[in-house]
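The freezer alarm interrupted the setup, so I double-checked each line after restarting. Inputs confirmed:
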Amino acid sequence: MTSRDWRADREAVFDRDAFTCRHCGTDGGDDPEMLRAYPVGEVPLEGDVHESALVTVCDECFETLDSPRATEAPATDDLFHLVRETTRLQGTTISAVADFASLATSLPSTLESALEEETDADVGESVSEYRRTRRDILLAVAVVDARLERLASLDDDTYDPAIQRPLAAFSDTAAELQSTLREVIALSETVAVGLERCQGCFDPIEGETCSTCGLKGRETANWQEDDGTLAFERLFATINERLQGASETTETLTDRTTALAEQLTAA
Ligand SMILES: [Zn+2]
Ligand SMILES: [Zn+2]
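Predicted 3D structure, all chains:
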């Protein structure tokens, strides 16, 4: 990905994020040169990219995200560290995604009570929280993806089969968890679209594409009642089911991490 083909008000993005990397927390306040705007979500990267699709990262995190392939195979000690750190990051990501889902499922009633009470105060707060949480989880998922991609780029014969086998089992389960998390995010975004808002910037959306950020609205056909309204209850139940599934997969992942760790420390 190059940043030459699209434009953005990077300074505004950095300012919004307090000149701090949203992944590792590195403060770039004294040296904004080390900060980069990283695009998240499916906003087309052409012309002016809206701030809701950009998140501040430091140079080092940008590097990890941009070129995840391993240049050389990590030694078993480093592999152990990489796997353990990936599991930890994925764990943090799961709870952040669960928070996002809970925020998304509260939106219909937040908007409804704002209509009744004729005040937008809570809506404004929920909307900025929605935008921020969404950007953060999309970044968190991308970071874990990059780490898993790095593991996947290692050749099959890099390590002893005694390590290779539990490593493959770990990678498979971690990838399964990633895809469940992406599904929960997509379902939570569907709540926004059901409220006739853009799933990225949350501005009212008319037609297929958001006129503010250029994001294509999520498909809601599967979630429509016969009368054309969105089946929020069914959607919420599915979100909870998937989150439950994610927590079960996490248990499997913990077992697999332990099995791999045993092989690595025995090596
Ligand atoms: Zn960073
Ligand atoms: Zn939008």
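Quick read of the result. Residues 34 and 72 are 25 Å apart (CA to CA).
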